[in-house]
Amino acid sequence: MIIVQLSDTHITPEPTRADGTLSRQAAMQRAVAHVLTMAAAPDAVLVTGDLTDHGTAEEYAAFQDLIAPFPMPVYVIPGNHDDRTRMLQLWPSQGTQHMERFMQYTVESHAVRLIALDTVLPGSDRGEICDERLAWLDARLAEQPDRPTLVFMHHPPFRSGMHVLDALDLEGADALAAVISRHPQVERLVAGHIHCEMQARVGGTLAMTASSTGLQIKIDLGAPERIWATPHRPTCLVHAWNVNHGLRTCSSAIGDAGPYPLIHDGTSWIS
User: Fold this and answer.
1) What domains can be seen in the chain, in order of their start residue?
2) Low-confidence ranges of the chain (pLDDT < 50)
3) pTM of the model
4) Cα-trace Rg, the chain
């Protein structure tokens, strides 16, 4: 099974920009085209929050148009820039075992079980995983203790070390880690929010964040009070499950990343 993770698309109404720079819609079109031309077609696509920049109906309509070319299922969750109520209306039938008032659900139709977590705290850019949402997660994980599971969310359950980003962290992260630690079948916790790739151990498993399709943040732990960003070098994460090797994750560059010369032809190394 192959799962592609996109994140933080931040779609705005403008399909193009007057200054000639890449719009959010154009950046997402580039990401969709990248996924559609992968040598191994994904079985599913996750978009881990901040689908839009302001949560408006116009922005969601543009987002839905942008993902329409995907032939595989696309599973979405809200981020702090989204409107949870509007998203629940637009995507009422994702997965099963939906949680009332929150966009939490399970997906049972793939080799890896997918569980969506809603970390939105209305009116705040910070995230929250409350007791109600955690109890639902604990119950869902207890149902299938032997099935490989990937949990996807928007706010990462760990701190980045960057002051500005950590001011927008996840309240309840320690309680989430305690729940995860009781369920070793959780192969990954995947998130977005911080517009860069980062990994940490949480509750005995690997938690990781995906980059944005648009604006990338540079992590510089030598200057944790500052933030640098660029619209260049976007990536997506590819999570590949195989019964013999488990779940492996790699980063896939979106757009022109330069040539990849052949260095091994299947028989020998090429100098």
Assistant:
1) 2-253 (3.60.21.10)
2) none
3) 0.93
4) 18
